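Hi all, posting the design record for the shared folder.

TITLE: backbone redesign
STEP: 1 of 1
STRUCTURE INPUT:
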């Protein structure tokens, strides 16, 4: 998880460790969200075969969703629910649909 956190901080352009606790929570929540959406997570997000990162798309989905959680940390009240609530970006929805059909174990063995 530490490696994912470091990549997330680079993705968000965050220096220092001040927000590590919140970022770790958002990161774990994003992974759980994807799992609950039917995306199976690989055991090694950084598997590389023939200089190709096999699970880069999984990591990108995690980074995009974590960024969404990070940037939309506002309190939702009944009066602000329609204007304050931000939907998940379309590009991320497309990636999730693609990843639902990926079996990471099979993909790891094919490489």
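Okay, here is what came back for every position:
SEQUENCE:
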């Amino acid at each position: 998880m530490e490696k994912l956190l470091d990549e997330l901080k680079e993705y968000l352009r965050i220096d220092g460790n001040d927000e590590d606790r919140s970022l770790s929570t958002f990161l774990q929540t994003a992974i759980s969200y994807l799992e609950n959406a039917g995306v199976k997570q690989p055991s090694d997000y950084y598997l590389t075969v023939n200089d190709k990162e096999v699970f880069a798309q999984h990591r990108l989905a995690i980074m995009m969703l974590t960024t969404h959680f990070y940037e939309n940390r506002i309190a939702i009240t009944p009066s602000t629910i329609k204007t304050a609530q931000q939907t998940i970006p379309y590009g991320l929805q497309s990636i999730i649909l693609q990843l639902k059909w990926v079996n990471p174990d099979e993909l790891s063995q094919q490489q």
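COMMENT: The chain has a mean pLDDT of 82.
Let me know if anyone wants the other runs.
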